[in-house]
Design goal:
Blueprint: E1 4-9, H1 14-25, E2 30-35, H2 40-45, E3 52-57, H3 62-75, E4 80-84, H4 87-93, H5 96-99, E5 103-107
Parallel strand pairs: 1-2, 1-4, 2-3, 4-5
Length: about 110
């Protein structure tokens, strides 16, 4: 069973995009959960890559969706590495570390 990589994109998309492209270059599949649902034209401008799955989530459902997404991954025994960019999200998900040793929570850091 391979590790599932998830990037949470809540505030600012540049670092999340850079990280997803970096993982793509390393042949690592990644799901990017994006807060907000821009117009169709904007969604189509995001270049598609074989190993990057962009999932747009309406603002008011984002926190619940992320919680359930991560919880279901842990429930089914998946090894998850979740990258975030907001401290509020870290607080919400930190408790999962106590539930599963297969859960990793990482702040998005892009090397320049």
């Amino acid at each position: 069973m391979s590790k599932k990589h998830v990037i949470l994109c809540e505030a600012g998309w540049h670092n999340a995009r850079e990280l997803s492209l970096e993982l793509d270059r390393k042949n690592i599949p990644v799901s990017v959960l994006i807060k907000g649902r821009p117009e169709k034209e904007a969604r189509q401008m995001i270049s598609r890559h074989k190993l990057i799955s962009n999932i747009f989530i309406p603002d008011k459902f984002f926190a619940v969706f992320v919680f359930l997404y991560v919880f279901s991954g842990i429930l089914f025994g998946k090894e998850l590495e979740v990258f975030y960019n907001k401290g509020k999200t870290e607080k919400m998900l930190a408790g999962f570390k106590k539930i599963s040793a297969k859960f990793q929570l990482e702040k998005i850091h892009i090397k320049k």
